[in-house]
Please model this.
Amino acid sequence: MTEEAKKVYAIVEIMGHTVVAGALSEESKAGVMMLRVDVPPRSDDPDSGFTRFYSGGSLFGITPCSAEDVQRWIDYRRPGRLPVYLPQDSLLVEVEAVGQLEAGAQRCRVCGCTDEDCSDCVEATGTPCHWIPELANDDGPICSRCAPVEVPF
Model:
């Protein structure tokens, strides 16, 4: 049996409304067994894959699924890596006027995050948000953090 065939894939729910999907394994970090989730890259961005570690106490649920299901979830939800914060001196970006958006940029109609700044969403959920195009309306777009979640019963 190949290494790829032995991998266990799942969608993992973590306390704090964070959800990730990927290949699962256990790994010891700082003397504690942690769940390792290797999130594959999105189909449209081969550099977007990343790895996260979670303690057992932070887990809410694990839904086993296939590698194909994980890829479909990744491509739909569009998770991203946590941003890297650099010292102010090393930033290579010129800051535009506060509140001014470039042509074609979007702003969430609920929390006000933009393509360039979703720091409030990262602080609240632990991951960057993404746009949910099918929920956009005349009031504007909505990000994944602010989108209503339907729970089927």
